[in-house]
């Protein structure tokens, strides 16, 4: 069994009857905006093991509107009420990061399985507390690090593990997005570092997790974290705000096998170049490219081995193709996560998930180490 495909291979083995479908309550499925509506609801519709039984937003009016639109029987404006409802087995948290802690805690206190979008908490302390509570409750816990479900990331992970490019000696990763100096009105809250949703935690978090999933864990790092654009103009109102969140992160890291990794994660004023990860081994080079980080982007892969003249496109093998009926765009990788989550719940936890709350805490520790390295000027060991 391929190590990159193991969780999904478990997921494809089980198909439910109507009686044993997993009943979902989702927090954050607002009709007008949000990741819950754009990604989670279409993804859930594509995975027959699930039935969306309830939605919860901050106002009953919007909850009922979403429920009516998607044919969901139950609507709530109180997460505790939804989490304690007997017709809900799994709580999905797909809202702004500052609310994650309270919502996930309510679900865990009710003894329900939880899928929380990344970041798990606004900080490491919150993430550790939620992980420990999930273990104490004995429930299945999943975090939304969907880069681990990206087919190209899994194919590259397996070819590296198989020694196709020899021993990995170095890698370079760039995540470059547009938008520095301007912010949509619905996203202006992200300029506050304490809110937990920054270029480091979101774009950086997803990309760094995909890198460590494919190449191995980070053992040590140095970093520079900066806010290079001190003024942000809110689109539509022209209000000028002063961010505390960074817009540029540069990391010099060493992997557990001794390989050296350079990372630059940034938002730029004009025309960011997207995602770029090149990995050099003793016998070859592999390159991944996409319009954004692997959690949402379709990636192209190029491969070149010793003795060849150039990097050539590598087709996605059939083993890594998404199942028929998988929606394209934002829900694509999310649906893959739900497939393995269904297998984990259906097996009572014996089938694996590739990104649980333990995974989230490990990534929170890396982000904390990046911030400490920048603040102190000292290299951090992990």
Describe what this molecule looks like in 3D.
The protein has 382 residues and is of the alpha/beta class. It folds into two domains: 6-145 and 332-355, NAD(P)-binding Rossmann-like Domain (Rossmann fold, 3-Layer(aba) Sandwich), CATH 3.40.50.720; 148-324 and 363-376, Dihydrodipicolinate Reductase, domain 2 (2-Layer Sandwich). Helices cover 31% and strands 26% of the residues. The protein has ten helices and 18 strands. A nine-stranded mixed beta sheet has the order 17-16-15-14-7-13-12-9-18. Helix 2 packs across helix 9 (331-346), helix 5 (100-109) packs parallel to helix 6 (124-137) and helix 7 (151-161) packs parallel to helix 8. It is globular and about 60 Å long. Mean pLDDT is 92; it is low at 1-5 and 8-17.
In short:
With 382 residues, this protein is α/β, with parallel strands linked by helices. The chain has 10 helices and 18 strands.
